[in-house]
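Researcher: We're teaching a course module on how sequence relates to structure. For the next exercise, students receive a sequence and then see the predicted structure as tokens, so they can try to spot secondary structure elements on their own. Here is the exercise chain.
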Amino acid sequence: MFRKRIILILTSRDEPDGVSKKLAEAIRKIGTHNVVVMSDDRYGSATKLSALDKLMDEGGEYQYLLEKKDKSVLKDKFAFKTLSKRVNRINNLIKRFHPDYILCVTPYAHHCATEAKRRARFDTQIIYMMTSFYLPKRIHDNITNVYIVENSEIKSALVQNGIKAKDVMVMGLPFEIVPVSDIEKTLKKQELGLPKVKTVYLGIQNKKELEKAYSLLLDQGGIANLAVYCEDQKVLSALSAKAVTVPDMKVVFIQERERIDEYLQICDVAVTEYDVATIYKCMKLGVPSIVLSTNEHEQANISFLVSHGLCLTAKEDIEIVGLLYKILQSDVGEYVSENGKKWVEMSSIDNIAAFLSAYIAV
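Model: And here is the predicted structure for the students to work with:
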């Protein structure tokens, strides 16, 4: 009986935009491989959260610690009590599925896979797809076989650190969104009851920062519509009550993350925290973004984007309003829009899936 080859994708709870599932679907569509996706609840500490697991609830905090502290200090602080369990679980996954290779899509998954290979000494190759715009420290090692990176600057940095150029593939990021025509955009706005003025997407997870940015934008009156992403019912009620006091500004609320894309498609500006998937999709749509800089460990990515004219950044909430007017009333918005579209025009999830399907581990 013919058995399709298997690719094992390791991910973790901080993955952006459900990337593991979407990659798995794109690979299965090609038809050469079956794909097994395992999140950290399967290979991590499933019954008891370690200090390392708790850090993962803060997204990139674990990677931030790796960059800021010596590995010995990190081990002393958290003891890695559950790491042996991770090693055994990943090793058992290798024995069970016999994958062609392991594809890691988050820093956490990559660390666990390389540590497991180092300790368990299995031969299965590791491919790491970095969802970052710059090269974090300590990311390179002699265990990972192939790196898939967003841009040539990351590749150059890896090569300078001793990685062979042939082992680094510049393929962009696997975040897809389909642009809509001006007619489709107009019809969608009419369907949502939005006036013909510009529409601003607001997506900030931090509740206090969201409320501050929302209030500042409301104070601008009818300059634009607002599409606000907020899942928290208590916060949503408070925001809705404020919207009633500004009748000349139309506000719609997005409560399901799965619906963000359809609102991004009709927006003219995005105000967001650093969210790699949202920013990349805005670049594909030609929607200029204002990125609120709230965390130190995201600053390198934001600085990279700003230096290449791919977004604007607000260090303080009050700066959002000035930047919004700058985008709406000058050619800055068009400049950022064109830069973004050119930057991502050659990248697609289908290209990455085609490479992964064709890759032969030797």
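Model: If you want an answer key for the exercise: Residues 56-61, 68-82 have pLDDT under 50 and may be disordered. The radius of gyration is 22 Å.
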